[in-house]
Amino acid sequence: MDEVRRGQQYAPDIGEAMNARELQLDELARQRQALEGTARLDDLVLIVGGRRGHFDPLGMYQLKVGSSLVVLSEQPSGLWRADVQRELLLREGCSVQCTVAFAEPREGAPDQLYTFEAAVDGEQLVSGAADLEDTSFVLTDMNGLSPGGGRFWRMATEVSLW
Per its UniProt entry, which superkingdom is the organism in (predicted)? Predict the structure, then answer.
């Protein structure tokens, strides 16, 4: 009889755990469906002069040039010039961010967005050792949930051309 009482005592906890597990499995199935959907490149950005692992926004400036180029530097002047961008690229390296959208199979549901990022060292660019096989991408954001949507450079002071 004591075993029955103990079993009844733990039954609500087991039921809650099973319900939570079912919710987790449903969410994983939904994510799997999203990943099986049609993928498309949603955004691609080259960040000259900045790599996430070495970035400190204090005293940094950013200039957005068009929709696919961001230039970062400790100096706000001349960021639009090709020679300044080249020097920053060789000295500081760069990051490449791409956002991949997976079409949501449910009608009217938003696409699932995954932002990936790779960092390339300036020395690799100078020596010609920048090999795509050695470059790895890491996931930096899912559906805009991380601060700034994974756009680490947005913490730097913005410089305007006009």
Answer: Eukaryota
Assess contact for 94 and 153: CB atoms under 8 A.
no
Selection from 54, 99, 60 nearest residue 79 by Cα:
60
The pLDDT, as a whole number, for residue 9 is 55
**Closest to 152 in 3D by CA, of 54, 31, 67, 9:** 54
Does residue 65 surpass a pLDDT of 70? Answer: yes
Cα–Cα distance, 66 to 76 (Å, whole number): 17
Which residues are paired to 98 by β-bridges? 44, 116
Residues 144 and 96 in one domain: yes
User: Both 58 and 70 in a single domain?
Assistant: yes
- Do 60 and 103 lie in a common domain? yes
Give me the domain span that covers residue 32: 1-36
Asked whether residue 139 carries a pLDDT value surpassing 80, the answer given is yes
pTM of the model: 0.69
Helix (H) or strand (E) holding 47: strand 39-48
CA quadruple 115, 155, 132, 113: dihedral, nearest 10? 10
The first and second tokens of residue 22, run together, are 């079912």
Considering the domain architecture, whether residues 149 and 100 belong to the same structural domain is answered as yes
**How many structural domains compose the chain?**
2
Q: What is the DSSP letter of 140?
A: E
